[in-house]
TrEMBL record:
It comes from Thermoproteus uzoniensis (strain 768-20). Residues 14-199 form the YrdC-like domain. This is Threonylcarbamoyl-AMP synthase. Required for the formation of a threonylcarbamoyl group on adenosine at position 37 (t(6)A37) in tRNAs that read codons beginning with adenine. GO terms for biological process: regulation of translational fidelity; tRNA processing. Keywords: ATP-binding, Cytoplasm, Nucleotide-binding, Nucleotidyltransferase, Transferase, tRNA processing.
């Protein structure tokens, strides 16, 4: 059974951090909290350890990892960050923003999926920062879940998905934001948003100026090439089919029930309906983001045939929420009852 160590999220014990750091240095895997989701970490310079991440998750080899650092100085040793990105990092790090830059250090190809770029982030979580510092090495870490599943926002989610494939889990309770970091490619001009997250587009534009937002960043399809996590392949999905609806939820539930289906509804920002299971996710966008992945996991526990989720405004962190919901649904969307019935009959 995987060892789970409960830690204070603000002031973890030195001996607990030291134990986890020793696992990292010895080539092991540690699941640790960040302000976004739990990460599955390995020494970024250890190719064999980093390869274990892919095996544990069932992650495609062409999907690169984010390398977590404890300081801007550490990041500058690993990648060639443009001056504009450095200035943003000085203001936004530690924080939920990842920069894709040209790699400088001799990182293993498994970490970068053989690409000339590397994704770098300095997390805003005391446990994560202390772990990186104690390990004395940058830590490569995707989300600590099986590939394609909702990301873990609690240690129990990690244990549920990965079990003994992890050597140690640092349990600091529920994560703060609940969705993964914003990723921006600063090797191009203008910079390109690869994945929306808690660091909003509005904030990005205030610091970087123009930012390109391709369709896949909104969750409207997949990218052809995975320059960073979350761009390619299905992500965040429950096993239960999920459909996004943008019309009256009560009518949507009625249509599904008329086809003999048991229905769960994700209740978002006051939009809800009487169903076989109604899962309250939150009343405002930040609360919805924080609870979204736990709600998607709960969908599978209520034993229904289909789950329905309303849309949310794509402003602020709402863009990240819609990105995750579109991908979790496999891009299944109904704007009318007729469209929903057609999807339910497939």
């Amino acid at each position: 059974m995987v060892k789970i160590v409960r830690v204070d999220p603000l002031n973890p014990r030195d001996e607990d951090i030291a134990e986890a750091a020793a696992v990292i240095r010895s080539g092991g895997l540690v699941a640790f909290p960040t302000e976004t989701v739990y990460g599955l970490g390995a020494d970024a310079f250890n190719a064999e350890a980093s390869a274990r991440i892919f095996k544990a998750k069932g992650r495609p080899a062409d999907n690169p990892l984010i390398v977590h650092v404890s300081s801007l100085d550490m990041a500058l040793e690993l990648g060639d960050m443009p001056e504009k990105a450095v200035e943003v990092a000085k203001k936004a790090w530690p924080g939920p923003i990842t920069f894709v830059v040209k790699k400088k250090a001799d990182l293993p190809a498994v970490v970068t999926a053989g690409r000339p770029t590397v994704a770098l982030r300095c997390p805003a979580h005391p446990v994560a920062l202390k772990l990186i510092e104690a390990a004395g090495t940058p830590i490569a870490a995707p989300s600590a879940n099986k590939a394609g599943r909702p990301s873990p926002t609690e240690a129990s989610h990690v244990a549920e998905d990965l079990g003994d494939s992890v050597d140690l889990i640092l349990d600091a309770g529920r994560t703060f934001f609940g969705v993964e970091s914003t990723i921006v490619d600063v090797t191009r001009e203008p910079p390109v948003l690869l994945r929306p997250g808690p660091f909003t587009v509005e904030e990005l534009k205030s610091l970087l100026g123009e930012v390109e937002i391709p369709p896949f960043a909104r969750g409207l399809g997949e990218a052809d090439v995975a320059l960073a996590p979350g761009m390619k392949y299905r992500h965040y999905a429950p096993e239960t089919p999920l459909i996004l609806v943008d019309f009256d939820l009560a009518s949507a539930v009625r249509a599904a029930r008329e086809l003999g289906l048991r229905v769960a509804v994700l209740c978002l920002a006051g939009r809800c309906a009487d169903a076989d299971a109604a899962i309250n996710v939150g009343s405002d966008l930040y609360e919805i983001a924080k609870n979204l992945y736990d709600a998607l996991r709960r969908v599978d526990k209520v034993k229904v045939d289909v789950a329905l989720a309303p849309t949310v405004p794509e402003r602020g962190i709402g863009l990240a929420i819609m990105n995750r919901l579109r991908k979790a649904s496999g891009f299944k969307f109904a704007a009318t009852e007729e469209e929903l019935r057609r999807l339910l009959r497939v």
